[in-house]
Amino acid sequence: MNMTEQNRSERLRVSKRRNIRWGRVIGTGIVVVLLALVGVVGFASMRAKTVVDKTYQDAGMKKSRDVSATIRDGKPFSVLLMGTDTGELGRNDKGRTDSLMIMTINPQKEETTIMSIPRDTLVAVPGYEDTFPQKINAAYELGSAKTAIKTVQDWLNIPIDYYALVNMGGLEQIVDEIGGVKVKSPLTFDYNPDTAHATPGNLYSFVKDSSTFTHTGEDGKTKTYTEMDGKAALAFSRMRYDDPRGDYGRQQRQRLVLETVVDKAKANPTKLLTDGFMTSLSKSVKTDLTFGDMTTIGTKYLNATKNIKSDYIQGQGYDLASGSTEVVSRQEEQRATNVLRRSLNLDAAETGNLYAGKISDEDVAAIGVPTMAASTGTVTQAQ
Fold it and tell me: Which pairs from 365-371 meet CB under 8 Å and 24+ separation?
Protein backbone atom coordinates (compact mmCIF):
# COMPACT_ATOMS: atom_id res chain seq x y z
CA MET A 1 0.00 0.00 0.00
CA ASN A 2 1.51 3.38 -0.98
CA MET A 3 1.50 6.50 1.20
CA THR A 4 -1.55 8.01 -0.52
CA GLU A 5 -3.59 4.87 0.01
CA GLN A 6 -2.44 4.67 3.63
CA ASN A 7 -3.51 8.26 4.23
CA ARG A 8 -6.89 7.65 2.63
CA SER A 9 -7.39 4.46 4.65
CA GLU A 10 -6.48 6.25 7.86
CA ARG A 11 -8.91 9.09 7.12
CA LEU A 12 -11.77 6.72 6.43
CA ARG A 13 -11.04 4.65 9.53
CA VAL A 14 -10.77 7.66 11.82
CA SER A 15 -13.82 9.35 10.32
CA LYS A 16 -15.99 6.28 10.89
CA ARG A 17 -14.70 5.72 14.40
CA ARG A 18 -15.04 9.31 15.50
CA ASN A 19 -18.11 10.14 13.38
CA ILE A 20 -16.79 13.69 13.47
CA ARG A 21 -17.01 13.65 17.25
CA TRP A 22 -16.22 17.29 17.59
CA GLY A 23 -19.55 18.38 16.12
CA ARG A 24 -18.57 22.03 16.46
CA VAL A 25 -21.40 23.64 14.60
CA ILE A 26 -21.89 27.23 15.52
CA GLY A 27 -25.64 27.07 15.92
CA THR A 28 -25.64 30.74 16.76
CA GLY A 29 -24.60 31.63 13.25
CA ILE A 30 -27.56 29.83 11.72
CA VAL A 31 -30.02 31.29 14.22
CA VAL A 32 -28.77 34.86 13.78
CA VAL A 33 -28.69 34.45 9.99
CA LEU A 34 -32.32 33.36 10.17
CA LEU A 35 -33.16 36.45 12.19
CA ALA A 36 -31.36 38.64 9.67
CA LEU A 37 -33.35 37.07 6.86
CA VAL A 38 -36.59 37.68 8.71
CA GLY A 39 -35.87 41.31 9.46
CA VAL A 40 -34.16 42.49 6.30
CA VAL A 41 -35.93 40.46 3.63
CA GLY A 42 -39.25 40.16 5.47
CA PHE A 43 -39.02 36.38 5.10
CA ALA A 44 -42.32 36.63 3.27
CA SER A 45 -41.89 33.99 0.62
CA MET A 46 -43.83 30.75 0.94
CA ARG A 47 -40.62 28.86 0.19
CA ALA A 48 -38.92 30.36 3.23
CA LYS A 49 -41.94 29.66 5.45
CA THR A 50 -42.05 26.06 4.26
CA VAL A 51 -38.40 25.58 5.18
CA VAL A 52 -38.82 27.15 8.62
CA ASP A 53 -41.86 24.98 9.26
CA LYS A 54 -39.76 21.90 8.47
CA THR A 55 -37.17 22.89 11.05
CA TYR A 56 -39.77 23.17 13.81
CA GLN A 57 -39.77 20.57 16.56
CA ASP A 58 -41.50 21.21 19.87
CA ALA A 59 -39.30 20.88 22.96
CA GLY A 60 -41.96 18.73 24.63
CA MET A 61 -42.05 20.67 27.88
CA LYS A 62 -43.68 23.62 29.58
CA LYS A 63 -41.22 26.48 29.57
CA SER A 64 -40.28 28.28 32.76
CA ARG A 65 -41.97 31.44 31.45
CA ASP A 66 -44.35 32.53 28.68
CA VAL A 67 -41.93 32.80 25.77
CA SER A 68 -44.51 34.12 23.30
CA ALA A 69 -45.35 36.98 25.65
CA THR A 70 -41.65 37.61 26.22
CA ILE A 71 -40.85 38.26 22.58
CA ARG A 72 -44.20 39.94 21.88
CA ASP A 73 -43.29 42.51 24.54
CA GLY A 74 -39.78 42.92 23.12
CA LYS A 75 -38.05 41.59 26.24
CA PRO A 76 -34.67 39.81 26.21
CA PHE A 77 -34.83 36.08 25.52
CA SER A 78 -32.49 33.09 25.46
CA VAL A 79 -31.70 30.23 23.10
CA LEU A 80 -29.84 27.02 23.97
CA LEU A 81 -27.66 26.22 20.95
CA MET A 82 -26.57 22.62 20.46
CA GLY A 83 -24.29 21.17 17.78
CA THR A 84 -24.57 17.45 17.10
CA ASP A 85 -21.94 14.94 16.03
CA THR A 86 -24.30 12.96 13.79
CA GLY A 87 -25.21 13.22 10.12
CA GLU A 88 -28.25 14.93 8.66
CA LEU A 89 -30.91 15.28 11.32
CA GLY A 90 -33.44 13.36 9.24
CA ARG A 91 -31.28 10.25 9.53
CA ASN A 92 -30.17 10.28 13.16
CA ASP A 93 -30.41 13.21 15.56
CA LYS A 94 -29.61 11.34 18.77
CA GLY A 95 -25.97 12.15 19.25
CA ARG A 96 -23.99 13.94 21.91
CA THR A 97 -24.31 17.70 21.63
CA ASP A 98 -20.61 18.43 21.67
CA SER A 99 -21.17 22.13 21.03
CA LEU A 100 -23.22 23.91 23.71
CA MET A 101 -23.83 27.63 23.92
CA ILE A 102 -26.39 29.89 25.56
CA MET A 103 -27.32 32.93 23.48
CA THR A 104 -29.20 35.82 25.02
CA ILE A 105 -30.59 38.65 22.88
CA ASN A 106 -31.28 41.99 24.54
CA PRO A 107 -32.82 44.68 22.29
CA GLN A 108 -32.81 47.35 25.01
CA LYS A 109 -29.05 47.09 25.42
CA GLU A 110 -28.60 46.33 21.70
CA GLU A 111 -26.51 43.38 22.78
CA THR A 112 -26.21 39.65 22.12
CA THR A 113 -24.31 37.50 24.62
CA ILE A 114 -22.94 34.07 23.73
CA MET A 115 -21.87 31.89 26.67
CA SER A 116 -20.00 28.70 25.73
CA ILE A 117 -20.31 25.64 27.96
CA PRO A 118 -17.45 23.09 28.06
CA ARG A 119 -18.76 19.86 26.56
CA ASP A 120 -17.08 17.78 29.29
CA THR A 121 -18.74 19.64 32.19
CA LEU A 122 -19.62 17.17 34.97
CA VAL A 123 -23.35 16.95 35.70
CA ALA A 124 -26.05 14.71 37.08
CA VAL A 125 -28.59 14.85 34.26
CA PRO A 126 -32.07 15.60 35.73
CA GLY A 127 -34.21 12.49 35.43
CA TYR A 128 -31.13 10.38 34.79
CA GLU A 129 -29.28 10.87 38.08
CA ASP A 130 -28.71 7.11 38.31
CA THR A 131 -26.21 7.47 35.42
CA PHE A 132 -24.02 9.95 37.37
CA PRO A 133 -21.30 10.92 36.60
CA GLN A 134 -22.18 12.25 33.15
CA LYS A 135 -20.87 14.99 30.88
CA ILE A 136 -23.29 17.75 29.97
CA ASN A 137 -23.03 16.85 26.28
CA ALA A 138 -24.85 13.58 27.07
CA ALA A 139 -28.05 15.29 28.28
CA TYR A 140 -29.66 15.43 24.84
CA GLU A 141 -28.56 11.91 23.96
CA LEU A 142 -30.01 10.51 27.20
CA GLY A 143 -33.33 12.28 26.81
CA SER A 144 -34.17 14.96 24.27
CA ALA A 145 -34.21 18.72 23.84
CA LYS A 146 -36.23 19.11 27.03
CA THR A 147 -33.63 17.11 28.98
CA ALA A 148 -30.83 19.36 27.74
CA ILE A 149 -32.89 22.48 28.52
CA LYS A 150 -33.75 21.28 32.03
CA THR A 151 -30.12 20.38 32.73
CA VAL A 152 -28.91 23.87 31.84
CA GLN A 153 -31.79 25.58 33.66
CA ASP A 154 -31.29 23.58 36.86
CA TRP A 155 -27.54 24.09 36.71
CA LEU A 156 -27.42 27.86 36.11
CA ASN A 157 -30.85 29.01 37.33
CA ILE A 158 -31.71 30.87 34.14
CA PRO A 159 -34.73 30.47 31.84
CA ILE A 160 -34.13 28.81 28.48
CA ASP A 161 -36.79 30.16 26.12
CA TYR A 162 -35.90 28.30 22.92
CA TYR A 163 -33.47 25.74 21.61
CA ALA A 164 -31.75 25.17 18.26
CA LEU A 165 -30.11 21.87 17.34
CA VAL A 166 -27.75 22.04 14.37
CA ASN A 167 -25.67 19.45 12.53
CA MET A 168 -22.08 19.75 11.40
CA GLY A 169 -22.84 20.57 7.77
CA GLY A 170 -24.74 23.73 8.65
CA LEU A 171 -21.74 25.98 9.16
CA GLU A 172 -20.03 24.71 6.02
CA GLN A 173 -23.12 25.43 3.90
CA ILE A 174 -23.59 28.94 5.32
CA VAL A 175 -19.94 29.90 4.82
CA ASP A 176 -20.09 28.72 1.21
CA GLU A 177 -23.38 30.52 0.55
CA ILE A 178 -22.04 33.86 1.75
CA GLY A 179 -18.93 33.50 -0.39
CA GLY A 180 -16.42 32.56 2.31
CA VAL A 181 -15.06 34.33 5.39
CA LYS A 182 -11.82 36.11 6.17
CA VAL A 183 -10.63 35.40 9.73
CA LYS A 184 -7.29 36.09 11.42
CA SER A 185 -5.98 33.06 13.25
CA PRO A 186 -5.10 33.54 16.95
CA LEU A 187 -2.32 30.92 16.68
CA THR A 188 -0.18 29.00 14.22
CA PHE A 189 -1.24 25.40 13.64
CA ASP A 190 -1.64 22.60 11.09
CA TYR A 191 -4.75 20.45 10.93
CA ASN A 192 -6.07 17.58 8.86
CA PRO A 193 -9.86 17.34 9.41
CA ASP A 194 -9.85 13.67 8.37
CA THR A 195 -7.50 12.55 11.14
CA ALA A 196 -7.84 15.43 13.67
CA HIS A 197 -4.05 15.79 13.68
CA ALA A 198 -1.34 17.47 11.65
CA THR A 199 -0.98 14.58 9.19
CA PRO A 200 -0.42 14.96 5.43
CA GLY A 201 -3.00 14.34 2.76
CA ASN A 202 -5.58 17.04 3.47
CA LEU A 203 -3.60 19.50 5.55
CA TYR A 204 -4.60 23.06 6.40
CA SER A 205 -1.93 25.41 7.76
CA PHE A 206 -2.92 28.60 9.60
CA VAL A 207 -0.59 31.37 10.78
CA LYS A 208 -0.99 33.53 13.88
CA ASP A 209 -2.36 37.05 13.26
CA SER A 210 -2.91 36.33 9.57
CA SER A 211 -5.98 35.55 7.47
CA THR A 212 -3.75 33.86 4.86
CA PHE A 213 -3.56 30.07 5.05
CA THR A 214 -2.52 27.13 2.89
CA HIS A 215 -3.99 23.75 1.96
CA THR A 216 -1.89 20.78 0.87
CA GLY A 217 -3.74 17.95 -0.86
CA GLU A 218 -2.96 14.26 -1.40
CA ASP A 219 -0.91 15.15 -4.46
CA GLY A 220 1.44 17.20 -2.28
CA LYS A 221 0.55 20.46 -4.01
CA THR A 222 0.10 23.47 -1.75
CA LYS A 223 -2.25 26.35 -2.50
CA THR A 224 -2.50 29.66 -0.66
CA TYR A 225 -5.81 31.33 0.23
CA THR A 226 -6.92 34.53 1.93
CA GLU A 227 -10.56 33.53 2.47
CA MET A 228 -11.95 30.35 3.99
CA ASP A 229 -14.59 28.31 2.25
CA GLY A 230 -16.87 26.05 4.30
CA LYS A 231 -14.40 23.17 4.57
CA ALA A 232 -11.55 25.45 5.64
CA ALA A 233 -13.79 27.17 8.22
CA LEU A 234 -14.67 23.79 9.73
CA ALA A 235 -11.00 22.80 9.87
CA PHE A 236 -10.14 26.11 11.52
CA SER A 237 -12.96 25.65 14.05
CA ARG A 238 -12.38 21.99 14.95
CA MET A 239 -8.73 21.75 15.95
CA ARG A 240 -8.33 21.01 19.65
CA TYR A 241 -5.35 18.85 20.55
CA ASP A 242 -2.60 21.22 19.39
CA ASP A 243 -4.16 24.32 20.92
CA PRO A 244 -2.48 25.16 24.26
CA ARG A 245 -5.89 26.30 25.53
CA GLY A 246 -7.61 23.11 24.40
CA ASP A 247 -11.38 23.34 24.16
CA TYR A 248 -11.34 27.02 25.15
CA GLY A 249 -9.02 27.90 22.31
CA ARG A 250 -11.27 26.07 19.90
CA GLN A 251 -14.30 27.95 21.22
CA GLN A 252 -12.46 31.22 20.57
CA ARG A 253 -11.87 30.22 16.93
CA GLN A 254 -15.50 29.17 16.58
CA ARG A 255 -16.61 32.59 17.77
CA LEU A 256 -14.28 34.33 15.32
CA VAL A 257 -15.89 32.44 12.44
CA LEU A 258 -19.35 33.08 13.84
CA GLU A 259 -18.89 36.83 14.13
CA THR A 260 -17.65 37.06 10.54
CA VAL A 261 -20.55 34.94 9.29
CA VAL A 262 -23.07 37.16 11.06
CA ASP A 263 -21.51 40.36 9.70
CA LYS A 264 -21.55 39.08 6.10
CA ALA A 265 -25.06 37.66 6.39
CA LYS A 266 -26.44 40.93 7.72
CA ALA A 267 -24.73 42.85 4.91
CA ASN A 268 -26.41 40.79 2.18
CA PRO A 269 -28.98 38.28 3.52
CA THR A 270 -30.73 37.88 0.15
CA LYS A 271 -27.82 35.69 -0.99
CA LEU A 272 -29.09 33.01 1.38
CA LEU A 273 -32.53 32.77 -0.22
CA THR A 274 -31.45 30.05 -2.63
CA ASP A 275 -32.86 26.57 -3.15
CA GLY A 276 -29.56 24.98 -2.12
CA PHE A 277 -29.28 26.90 1.11
CA MET A 278 -32.94 26.42 2.03
CA THR A 279 -32.76 22.66 1.43
CA SER A 280 -29.60 22.34 3.51
CA LEU A 281 -31.11 24.41 6.29
CA SER A 282 -34.23 22.26 6.54
CA LYS A 283 -32.07 19.14 6.91
CA SER A 284 -29.56 20.65 9.32
CA VAL A 285 -31.65 22.49 11.92
CA LYS A 286 -34.26 21.58 14.50
CA THR A 287 -35.73 24.32 16.68
CA ASP A 288 -38.86 25.29 18.57
CA LEU A 289 -38.71 28.78 17.07
CA THR A 290 -41.80 29.06 14.88
CA PHE A 291 -42.12 31.13 11.73
CA GLY A 292 -44.26 33.55 13.74
CA ASP A 293 -41.58 33.78 16.45
CA MET A 294 -38.94 34.54 13.84
CA THR A 295 -41.09 37.21 12.23
CA THR A 296 -41.61 38.91 15.60
CA ILE A 297 -37.94 38.60 16.50
CA GLY A 298 -36.83 39.93 13.13
CA THR A 299 -39.01 42.99 13.65
CA LYS A 300 -37.99 43.79 17.21
CA TYR A 301 -34.55 42.30 17.87
CA LEU A 302 -32.18 42.82 14.94
CA ASN A 303 -30.54 45.81 16.61
CA ALA A 304 -29.34 43.42 19.32
CA THR A 305 -26.87 41.87 16.87
CA LYS A 306 -24.95 45.15 16.66
CA ASN A 307 -22.87 44.18 19.68
CA ILE A 308 -21.98 40.51 20.21
CA LYS A 309 -20.30 39.63 23.49
CA SER A 310 -18.57 36.28 23.86
CA ASP A 311 -17.89 34.49 27.14
CA TYR A 312 -17.23 30.95 28.29
CA ILE A 313 -17.56 28.93 31.46
CA GLN A 314 -14.19 27.77 32.79
CA GLY A 315 -13.85 24.31 34.32
CA GLN A 316 -11.06 22.34 35.97
CA GLY A 317 -9.99 19.00 34.59
CA TYR A 318 -10.47 15.79 36.58
CA ASP A 319 -9.59 12.22 35.66
CA LEU A 320 -12.32 9.88 36.87
CA ALA A 321 -12.66 6.14 36.55
CA SER A 322 -15.23 6.81 33.81
CA GLY A 323 -12.87 9.14 31.93
CA SER A 324 -11.78 12.77 31.93
CA THR A 325 -14.25 15.52 32.83
CA GLU A 326 -14.39 19.19 33.82
CA VAL A 327 -15.72 20.45 37.13
CA VAL A 328 -17.06 24.00 37.22
CA SER A 329 -16.55 25.62 40.61
CA ARG A 330 -19.47 27.14 42.49
CA GLN A 331 -17.88 30.57 42.06
CA GLU A 332 -17.58 30.17 38.29
CA GLU A 333 -21.09 28.76 38.07
CA GLN A 334 -22.37 31.82 39.94
CA ARG A 335 -20.39 34.18 37.69
CA ALA A 336 -22.00 32.65 34.59
CA THR A 337 -25.44 32.94 36.19
CA ASN A 338 -24.81 36.59 37.00
CA VAL A 339 -23.72 37.38 33.43
CA LEU A 340 -26.68 35.60 31.85
CA ARG A 341 -29.35 36.92 34.22
CA ARG A 342 -27.99 40.43 33.75
CA SER A 343 -28.15 40.00 29.97
CA LEU A 344 -31.81 38.96 30.33
CA ASN A 345 -32.64 41.96 32.56
CA LEU A 346 -33.48 39.58 35.43
CA ASP A 347 -32.90 40.18 39.12
CA ALA A 348 -29.79 38.68 40.67
CA ALA A 349 -30.27 35.22 42.13
CA GLU A 350 -28.26 32.32 43.46
CA THR A 351 -27.03 29.95 40.80
CA GLY A 352 -28.55 26.48 40.41
CA ASN A 353 -27.50 23.05 41.63
CA LEU A 354 -23.76 22.43 41.54
CA TYR A 355 -24.18 19.44 39.23
CA ALA A 356 -27.64 20.28 37.82
CA GLY A 357 -29.58 17.20 38.95
CA LYS A 358 -30.41 15.98 42.45
CA ILE A 359 -27.36 14.14 43.70
CA SER A 360 -26.13 13.66 47.26
CA ASP A 361 -22.79 14.93 48.56
CA GLU A 362 -21.98 11.32 49.41
CA ASP A 363 -22.37 10.25 45.78
CA VAL A 364 -20.33 13.24 44.63
CA ALA A 365 -17.54 12.63 47.16
CA ALA A 366 -17.40 8.98 46.15
CA ILE A 367 -15.99 9.88 42.70
CA GLY A 368 -13.45 12.35 44.11
CA VAL A 369 -14.81 15.76 43.03
CA PRO A 370 -15.87 18.80 45.11
CA THR A 371 -19.19 18.57 46.95
CA MET A 372 -21.81 21.26 47.44
CA ALA A 373 -20.73 21.60 51.05
CA ALA A 374 -17.25 22.59 49.88
CA SER A 375 -18.49 25.28 47.48
CA THR A 376 -20.11 28.68 47.87
CA GLY A 377 -21.57 31.17 45.41
CA THR A 378 -21.60 34.94 45.25
CA VAL A 379 -24.72 36.80 44.17
CA THR A 380 -24.19 40.23 42.64
CA GLN A 381 -26.84 42.75 41.75
CA ALA A 382 -27.91 42.66 38.10
CA GLN A 383 -27.30 45.90 36.27
Answer: 367/133, 367/320, 367/321, 367/322, 368/318, 368/320, 369/122, 369/133, 369/318, 369/320, 369/325, 369/327, 370/327, 370/329, 370/330
pLDDT (tens digit, 9 = 90+) per residue, 61-75?
999 999 988 998 999
DSSP state of 26: -
Nearest to 302 by CA among 142, 111, 153: 111
**Distance (Å, rounded) from C-alpha 337 to C-alpha 350?**
8
Do 350 and 276 fall within a single domain? yes
93-104 per-position pLDDT tens digit: 567 787 888 999
Q: Is residue 382 part of a domain?
A: no
Question: Is the CB of residue 124 less than 8 Å from the CB of residue 154?
Answer: no
Work out the mean pLDDT of the chain and round it to a whole number. Answer: 81
Query: What is the model's pTM?
Result: 0.75
Say whether both 225 and 277 belong to one domain. no
Q: Which of 227, 254, 281 is the last residue of a domain?
A: 254
Burial class (CB in 10 A: 0-12, 13-18, 19+), 91: exposed
**pLDDT surpasses 70 at 272:** no
Cα–Cα distance for residue pair 122/136, rounded to 1 Å: 6
Percent helix, percent strand, percent coil in the chain, to nearest 5:
40, 20, 40
In this prediction, residue 286 has a pLDDT band, given cuts at 50, 70 and 90, of confident
Query: Do 238 and 282 share a domain, yes or no?
Result: no
**What is the secondary structure of 259-297 as a DSSP string?**
HHHHHHHHH-GGGG-SHHHHHHHHHHEEES--HHHHHHH
Where residue 220 falls among pLDDT bands split at 50, 70, 90? very high
Torsion of CA 39, 283, 115, 186, to 10 degrees: -100
What φ, ψ does residue 282 adopt, rounded to 5°?
Answer: -65, -25
CA distance 377 to 380: 10
In a domain, 90, yes or no: yes
Structural domain that includes position 78: 19-178+268-374
Phi, psi angles (nearest 5°) of residue 67: -70, -35
Kindly state the helix (H) or strand (E) to which residue 238 belongs, with its residue range: helix 230-238
Question: Angle 94-97-98 (CA atoms, 0-180°, nearest 5)?
Answer: 140
